[in-house]
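[Automated response] Your request has been received and processed.

Submitted sequence:
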Amino acid sequence: MEEGDLAAGKSAAAERGAWIVFEDEAGQSMTPPRARTWGRIGQTPVVRVRGRGSGRVSMAGMACYKPGQRSRLIYAIPRVPGPQG
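Generated structure:
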């Protein structure tokens, strides 16, 4: 592609002077996992972890593009406190 060229059939945003935005979000629990492993028949061992969870971390972001403009990245990373704050 040359400078300023758009994919076939994708010029509506350019004609209107609109932004093209891609959005995504993800999250991760900060609670330690409980794991299981192999054991004797009928006796499944459980691997215990110490400590409590500290909440949840979430992230959302947008990548914004507009022909002739500088691209922009907008994001937020809020942390939701767990039982211990």
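Summary generated for your ticket: The radius of gyration is 23 Å. The mean pLDDT is 76.
If you did not submit this request, please reply to this message.
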